[in-house]
Structure formats: C-alpha cells, structure tokens
Amino acid sequence: MRRLCLLVALTVAAACSPRPGVPGATGPSGAAFPFDWEFRGLDPTGTGTQGLVATTEERATRVGVETLRAGGNAVDAAIAVGFALAVVHPAAGNIGGGGFAVVRMADGETAALDFREMAPMLATQDRFLDQEGKPTDASVTGHLASGVPGTVAGLWELHQRYGSLPWEELIAPAVDLAENGFTVNERLQDGLAALQPRVAEFETTLQVFYPDGQPPRVGSTFRQPMLAETLRLIAAEGKSAFYGGAIANMIVEEMRGGGGLITHEDLRRYVAKWRDPIVFEYRGNTIISISPPSSGGVTVAETLNILEGYNLRELGFNSPEAVHLIAEAFRRAFADRNYHLGDPDYVEMPIDRLISDEYAAELRAGISRNRASPSEQFNRVPVLQEGTNTTHYSVVDSEGSAVSLTYTINSAYGSGVVVARAGFFLNNEMDDFAMRAGYANQYGLIQGEANLVGPGRRMLSAMTPTIVVDPQGQLRMVVGSPGGPRIITAVAQTIINVIDFQMDARTAVDAPRIHHQLLPDAIQIERNGLDQRTISLLEGFGHTVTARRSYFGDVQLIIRASDGTLYGASDPRRQGGRAIGY
C-alpha cells in the first residue's frame, strides 16, 4: 500500500511543473523535493489541542498519551514513555544507557538534565588500545564497552523535580508490556537478526532474545519476564533499586563474569546533573538546547548563528547555494565541536564565544558563496586514521509544558550484553570517548584531547533535545533525533525547515537531509536526496558529494500553531513511529 501511495504521489508530482530555476518537483510548503524522493507526506500527522506525544514506537506513544489523559503532565508522560521504550524498543530504548532532557514548563521555567553515562573509575586508555597504541573494538562489543548507566537516575530526577503522578503508576505500563508481551514487528525481528552474530558468546542475550535459537518472529508475542521483575523493583524502590539494591548486584556480577569495569562504588557515585541549557536566538525565535557533555546545543547554535546571515528562504530549499552554505556552517561548527567540547566537570570550554554572534560573523566572513572550504583548513585534531542507536521523543501537555528527551545505548542493542537475571541491554558508550586523539570512532568522528577517556568522565555526545519558543514567548517546536553525529545536522535542518522554509510538521520531517561533520571532507546525502543537477553544481563548487544507501535520523517533531493547536510528525525513515494527540 505504501508503494502504491508513493507511485500515485510520484505520478502527480511528475505532472506538476517545478518552480523556475529549482530542480525537482515542488513539494508541500513550496519545498522542492527530487522526483524520486521516497517520503512525501504518506505518514500521518498527529493533531491535538490538549496534548501530543511523538516517539519512534507507536505503543510507547500511546503510553505517553494515556498518561496525559490520566492527568499527568509532560514530564510524567516522558517518564512513562522512557520506561515503555525500554521494553518495546530494546535497540535504543533503555534502562542500561543514558541521555539528556530539555524541559520547558508552562510558566516559562526551563531546565536541562544530564543523565549521560559515566566512565567507571577503572577505565583508562590502555584498556582500549592494542600493543601498537591503536584502538581495539573493546569499546564497541562486550563488557568493557559499558559506562555507568544514567537513565534510571535521570527519569527519577525528572520526577522528583517536576512529576505529578505517583512514580509507580508511570512504570506500570512498561511492566505490563514486559510481563504480558507485545506483538513483534519487522523492525524488531530484523534488528535482532542482524545482531545475532555479534552476541553469539553472550549466554543471557541469547536466552532472552533468541529463545528458540532465532529472533522472535513477526506477529508473535514477545514477553520479557526478567525485565518485568526489574521494572517492578524500580517502581517499588525508585532509583536506589538500580544503583544500590538487587539490580546493582546483578550489574556488578555481570561485570565480574565478563571482565567489565563497573563496580558498586561506580553505581553509588552516579548522579544525574542539572545543567544550564544552551540558549540563543535565531531569526527572533529562542532556541533552548542541551549543553555539554552533549555537543548538540553548542554545535547547532554555532551552525544557525552562521546561517542567520543568509536569506535561505530566498535561495530556496535544497538549492545548490543553500546546501553549500549549510554544509560550510556544519563544517566549521564540527571543527569546534571536535576540538573544544568534553565533560564540563573536567574540561574548560569557551562556550560563550562559540555560541556568540560575533564569533559567527568571523566564521561567516570566511565562507565563499560559490567555493567549498577544505576541511584541513579548520581541523585541529591530528588525523591518525580515517575511518547509531539512540531514540528521541517529544511531549507537550495541555498546559503548554514540554519535554524534549533523547536517550541511548549508543550502537543498536548497545554492547550486546544483557544483564543476567535483569533482562536489559547494557550500553557501549565507552566508544563515544576518544580512545586516542585523532582516531575515528564507529561514527567516523575524529576527536581531540578534550574527550579522552578517563575515570569518572562523561563521554561527549551528539544528542540534541531542543525546544523552540517563538518571538511572542509561546512554545513553537519540540524536536530531537537519534543518529550519532547526524543528530546535530538533522535537528538543525528541521529547525531551518520550519523557521526559514515555513514547512508544516509532516513536510519538515519528511524533507531530504544532508550531513557534513568536517571529516570525512564530504557532503553526505540520503539516497535520492538531491537531484543530479544540484549534485553537479555542488561538485563545481569544489565539494565532494557522497550518496549513502541509508537515511539520516529519526526526527520526532511537535509544532504548536498560533491558535494553540499541536501538530506532530514521527519520522518515516524508521518503521513504527507515530505522533498522537488529543
């Protein structure tokens, strides 16, 4: 049916005349999409006046909506969604990972919460390097790859400060999904099938997720009784169950059995930290985003501050010059990200300068309107080697309070290790450190000394939960995405789509995306995301354009209209997401 709808959409598009001078078909909101672009408004748009939830998994979305209907606020719904995703979306939803949240309450109060994983106190560089000093895969698969999880502490901290419904009520839907099961879809079956060779040596992982030696089949009911019991403990005892009780014992036993580093002391020492959010203006709108140890807010701020000096709308969506300018802004912002940013408790960072208009003007002055800048000109990390699984959700309640929350276990299914008797995956976030300055991690990011692994440090992240307030002081957008470094570029482009190109929620999420992260020195594009004429013109500017087989990100967007109506869109790039309002 989806292919039939696509065929009809393409037939209609082919019959329409494109805007003069703009290659490709004219999509909704005047955006020019290539004729063979797959996503053209075929997925539903959520609408509501009392509240809206957008997540990558419809069952989790419905848990959030029901929490709002039961009288919960946006934070309550975010907590309930977080635990539900830990059950129905084990590739990224988690209690064994960590993340960040940006909150804006109805009275205008804003806050940013850091519940990023932390390196165990026994973590040192030499544990992840071979005899020649090169990084091994120990930071990707197995017990050494895991940092101290922060998700339970983070959701608990959100509840302590802003929650209104009882804690145990917010976890109850997740317990039910784990105990009684849910219907397996293709996304879960395919993901576990791809994972199976990587986890062949992990007995508990095989026991829980491959009970018959194969991943659960599409249409079957998947139950997780061990995880249900773990969630009951957290519901009854709160954060202490995870960091000092029976679950902590299970985690430490798992570490001892597999040669991991997390100890009881590491778990006791872990705290979620309230940070000052990154706040800046873009075309009269106030952007509220996350601060280090996430690089997302700073990098998006630097990018948008540079682009504010150009009339992108006049240039046209995905016109060669607009793509060129956006890529040049990304190139410069990622250069600063890779060199300066790290854990604020350990590293001094010139954040005020990086997000200032004055600095953006300096960078903008070096951008040619028709010539690419070589990345070597900006890179300050010696290149020794060239060489995504996160999830985001957005919530708005009837009072206008909003939560933008991104959390992760890094790769799909994290380290591949499931904690014995507890039933959940542990993260492989140690790979987000620079094991040695100048070596690429699994996402191709080449980072400097500011993000070197060290005991107690929090690894740099690209997560970018963001809230936008309009010039009148009213909530305008809640947005975020998974995708490694492509989180930053996906969020920035979604904001540009709405503010500069005046796209509706569905079009802003569907629109093709580009990516540039300094190194490799190339504009990466999604499959069929740019037409050949635009690619040729960009190459004429001196850019290398690399087409990927995959798509970038999984944006979950809510837009509030001037009359208060909420519109939500879940990204069609990954199966199963849904935005639902009421």
What key attributes describe this structure?
single chain, 582 residues, alpha+beta, seven-stranded antiparallel β-sheet, 19 helices, 21 strands
Q: Can you describe this structure?
A:
This protein is an alpha+beta fold and 582 residues long. It has a domain at 63-97 and 116-273 and 414-451. It is built from 19 helices and 21 strands. It has helices at residues 2-15, 58-69, 74-88, 151-162, 167-180, 186-195, 203-209, 225-237, 239-243, 246-258, 264-269, 296-307, 312-315, 320-340, 351-354, 357-365, 486-499, 505-510, 532-540; strands at 25-26, 32-33, 46-48, 52-55, 98-104, 110-115, 182-183, 221-222, 273-275, 278-282, 285-289, 390-396, 402-408, 466-469, 475-479, 514-515, 523-525, 545-547, 556-560, 566-570, 578-581. It has a seven-stranded antiparallel β-sheet with strand order 3-20-19-15-14-11-10. Strands 9-6-5-13-12-4-21 form a seven-stranded antiparallel β-sheet. It has a three-stranded mixed β-sheet with strand order 16-17-18. A hairpin with a 2-residue loop joins strand 10 (278-282) and strand 11. Helix 12 (296-307) runs antiparallel to helix 14 (320-340).
